[in-house]
Amino acid sequence: MSGQVMNEIEDHVPALRRHAYRLTGTQDRANDLVQDTLLKAISKQDKFEEGTSLKAWLHRILFNTFISEVRRAKTRGHHVDWDDLGDVYGHGSNQMARLQLRDADRVLEELPEQERQAILLTTVDEMSYQDAAEFMNVEIGTVKSRVGRARRKLRGMVGQIEAREHVSRFVSEAS
After folding, report:
1. Domain RNA polymerase sigma-70 region spans what residues (predicted)?
2. Which residues 6+ apart lie within 8 Å of 42 measured at CB?
3. Rg (CA), the chain
4. CATH code, residues 93-175
5. Phi, psi (5° rounding) for residue 108?
6. Domain boundaries, given as residue ranges, for the chain
7. What DSSP letter does each residue of 93-126 carry, written as one string?
8. Sign of dihedral through CA atoms 68, 59, 105, 30?
C-alpha cells in the first residue's frame, strides 16, 4: 500500500464512523471499532489490491471486525442483546428528531437484510454502487436492483404510516 493510499484512508474515516455507529449503536463502541479497523488495515496493507476500491476494502474490514467481536462475545457466554447496543438516536437530540429516527429505523428494519444493507451503504455510507457491490461481493446490477426494490418498499411503507397517522388524527379530533 503506497503512502498516497495511506493518506486516502483518512478521507474514509467519517464514513467508517457512520457505518460503525450504525452497527454498534454507541459512539464509544463505534470509535473502538474504527480504531481496530484502521489497525487491521495498516497491518494487512499488503493484502490490498491496487486498482480496487479502498473504501469497500475498509468497510469490509470494519464489518468483519464487528462480526468477529459479536461472535467472540457469544462464545465467551456473553449474551449479545441487539436492543442494548446503545442509544442509536444520540444524546441531546430533541424529542421529535428521535421519534423520526426511530420511525425511520423501524421502517428500515422491515426490509429484507440484503435490501436494507444495499440502501444503507449507498445512502448513509455514501458508497457508489460499484463500492457497495465490492463490499457485498455481488454484481453492480444486483446492488442497483436491491436499492430500487428497497426504495419502492420504503415509499409504500411510509405511505401506509402516513395514512394511519392521518386516520388516527382524524379519529382523535372527532372524539
Report:
1. 9-74
2. 6
3. 19
4. 1.10.10.10
5. -60, -35
6. 1-86, 93-175
7. --HHHHHHHHHHHHHHHTS-HHHHHHHHHHHTS-
8. positive
Q: How many CB atoms lie within 10 A of CB 29?
A: 17
Q: Which residue has the cell 395514512?
A: 163
- Helix-strand-coil split of the chain, %, nearest 5: 80, 0, 20
Condensed to tens digits (0 to 9), the pLDDT of residues 60-69 reads 899 889 888 8
Q: Report the predicted TM-score, pTM, of the whole model to 2 decimal places.
A: 0.56
C-beta separation of 116 from 91 below 8 A: no
Give the pLDDT confidence of 126-139 residue by residue, as tens digits.
789 998 998 899 99
**Grid cell 441487539 — which residue?**
82
